[in-house]
Amino acid sequence: MEHILGNDWTVTPAGGSTGEAYYAQTEGKRLFLKRNSSPFLAVLSAEGIVPKLVWTKRLENGDVITAQEWLEGRELKPEEMKHPRVAALLSKIHHSSELLDMLMRLGKHPLSPDEVLKDLIENQKYIDRVDSRIEIHKAIKFLENKVDNIHHDKHVVCHCDTNHNNWLLSSYNQLYLIDWDNAMVADPALDLGMLLYSYIPEEDWEKWLMEYGIEPNSHLYERMIWYATSQALSFIQWHQMRGEYEEADVRTEKLKKMMTEHGII
């Protein structure tokens, strides 16, 4: 990365699962760099959902480097996910026709529950060779039994990982949702289910969803538990396939707790 910016810059890895993100700084200037970010980043920046995009450069090998503002700030704490600003920003994302149009033009088609289930079942075939747990198979059975009830006509841009670590509060009190590598066009219940089941006490769901901008109903709740279960399984599988078994165990316990509390097992 130094050869792109010049010798005056100090570049350090920013971590993350892809290893393609970096922090860069020189006297009086700081940037967040990423290799091969989606063109979607430009629309997210224009909408004020991620820190400002400063420049984009295409390299001779075809790689694209993007530079964003590197902001002082911090991730949200789990208890801060209850704040109305979180509901408002997620609502803005889900109701943005500009974001939806751009992601569709980039070739993303609406994700159906059947596709989600098919991928989970295929992935589980490989994982079962080394680790087969009753909770996992009960979760998949639940998804199979309910999949025909989950279809929903309204599709939006979903972030697909609304973990509190991905919410950035800048030092000047601006809230952002970062790390859009896994964004999809899908049922908004995909984002809502993970967020509410992970962070919001059930007695506060109706209030939170009203702040988001919808009046909840039984079909929304049914879709939310379905997608919350499917995402929990997806993350467990991801960690297992990477050999991160301790993290997979932690997430399996969370899945078991959710399923027990809501009568799935």
Provide a descriptive summary of the structure in words.
This protein is α+β, with helices and mostly antiparallel strands. The protein has 2 domains: about 1-70, 2-Layer Sandwich (Phosphorylase Kinase, domain 1), CATH 3.30.200.20; about 75-260, Alpha-Beta Complex (Aminoglycoside 3'-phosphotransferase, Chain: A, domain 2), CATH 3.90.1200.10. The chain contains 10 helices and 10 strands. The protein has helices at about 1-5, 40-45, 85-95, 95-105, 115-125, 135-145, 190-200, 205-210, 220-240, 245-260; strands spanning about 10-15, 20-25, 30-35, 55-60, 65-70, 75, 155-160, 165-170, 175, 185. It has a 5-stranded antiparallel beta sheet, covered by helices on one side. A hairpin with a 2-residue loop joins strand 2 and strand 3. The radius of gyration is 20 Å and the shape is globular. The N and C termini lie far apart (about 50 Å). The mean pLDDT is about 90. Pfam families: APH (PF01636). This is Phosphotransferase family protein. InterPro entries: Aminoglycoside_PTrfase, CcrZ_PhaseVar_Mediator, Kinase-like_dom_sf.
